[in-house]
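My main concern about presentation is that the manuscript never shows what a single data entry looks like. For the editor and my fellow referees, an illustration may be useful. For illustration, here is how one protein appears when written out as sequence plus structure tokens:

***
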Amino acid sequence: MSFRTKAAAYFNYLMESHSKSLMDRMVLQFLDCLSVLYGWGVTQKYRSFQTHPEKQIHVDAVVISLGNITVGGTGKTPMACFMARRLQQCGYRTALLNRGYRSNVENDTALMSDGSQIFLTAADGGDEAYLMARSLPGVPVLVGRQRVRSARRAVFDFHTQVILLDDGFQHWQLARDLDIVLIDAANPFGNGRVLPGGILREPMVQLRRAGLCIITKADQCCRRDMAALYDTIRRYNQQAPIAEAVHQAKWCIPFHYWNMMTGTDRSDKCLPKGKAVIAVSALGNPASFEHTVTAMGYHLVDSIRYDDHYQYTDKDMDKLAAQAVQAGAVLITTEKDAVKLPAAYIEEKDIPFYVLGIEIEIIKGNEVVNATLRHVLGG
């Protein structure tokens, strides 16, 4: 386990509500002091854009931001794919902007896909952007930290009508017409403190900027807690519509078939329910993926977690294959992880890897999502 993984695990431990040692309490007090400084800095940065709106750049397209107010996985990637497909089905020329976090082009602006051809690898352009490009034929995907440059390129090169700004709630340089905020039902706001003493990226009062709130992983929350979550959202934002969504597992197929993209009907290749599996992931919220694996009917015998956005190696594959043999299980991973697996090595060694396909499904408030999109698009 790397230092980064150990540090993340310890941070998560500190965020949990249980009795802590004297040393843990001292660390928390120190982090709380840093949180005050961090919160002040984020607030000042936002106010600089609020008081000087000329700092925000407008482009000749409708800009819709998908983001969250916390660190960790809330389901932005599948939600971005969901929204892009919906806009595409409505006839809008749509482009998706992704930062390309920890990729080779993060500090530049690059074209991952023009909607028909993918130009970068997952390592070059980022795992999330690569997965979006694979999943969204007809939708250009641009990567890079300079979102304004990416947006201008999307409009100029592809005559884009709607830009989806992935992970854009805290990116204020590009003016947007709608902020969609995703909230994880399983862990909405942590302990209510901003980084590094909590999981909030900015103070909760900034929820007031949301034009639409979507509670993800709604099936991992009881109705009493859900009602309390609605109350919390309404405390800071009384106008934004609220919808609920779940991560719905659709299929689980061998890596070979997934990598070859053979057809749309995968039911005949699905891994039978009840099989012993080892969950392998490098995610912001691996527990949610593991929950989905068990909910789909598989017997989870072990889980192996890597750093978020980790790049898998041949050596990793050998270790995972040995663990699978020892446990009498197969390996199961996400599409986001699958784009980073060494495909040729897996094929050569015949490693028993399966890929779980997960899609977003709105289970409550679908009509308010449609109404909000129609309003912002002028339809």
